[in-house]
Design a protein that fits this description.
Layout lengths: L16 H52 L3 E6 L9 E5 L3 H4 L10 E2 L1 E5 L3 E2 L6 E5 L5 E7 L4 E2 L2 E7 L5 E6 L5 E4 L10
Antiparallel strand pairs: 1-2, 1-7, 2-5, 3-4, 6-9, 7-8, 9-10, 10-11
Amino acid sequence: MNSKGEQKSHSQNGVTFVELLVTISIIGILAAIALPYYGDYVERQRLIGASEAVLSQLQHAKRLSISNNRGVFFHAASLGVSSNNWCATFTEASGGSSGYIAADCSNAYITDVSNLSPVARGSYFDGIYLTASAGTSSTEILFAMPELESDNDELTLTSERSGRRVVLEVSSQMKISICSDDIGNYSDC
């Protein structure tokens, strides 16, 4: 007390133990709620990423076929074997007839053997399977020019964890479509 009988007030620095416990509890509850949704989000984004990568390869093969006025093959290998082993690319050489394209999609080229094609790999999209409608371990889709036609085929990307699917379909008129009943980004199949 001072000379006038007043008490000095002491300012309190820091946080009390109870405040710390309440804060940690709230953070724990929020994390417990958000974590399952985050895992679901990551899995959906992997499926979308894989679908867009394969779609991009199909569209690129179609575009090259039209612009170069010659046939271009879309090639996918190691289908349905493991979620991390599949691959997809495009090339002017038929891997089925010549066996030139390796099982890992290497050696694919356009116009010159030194101009290697890009490859989409399952290892980039952990937990996503790629399968073809024929159920084979590899598939080729020919985009033929000047006929403006292609092989009919359907490729399905499936999430190993949830079973969500995205379907890529190629019609005989070179139309490429993408659909999914499980992913809101695409129209229903």
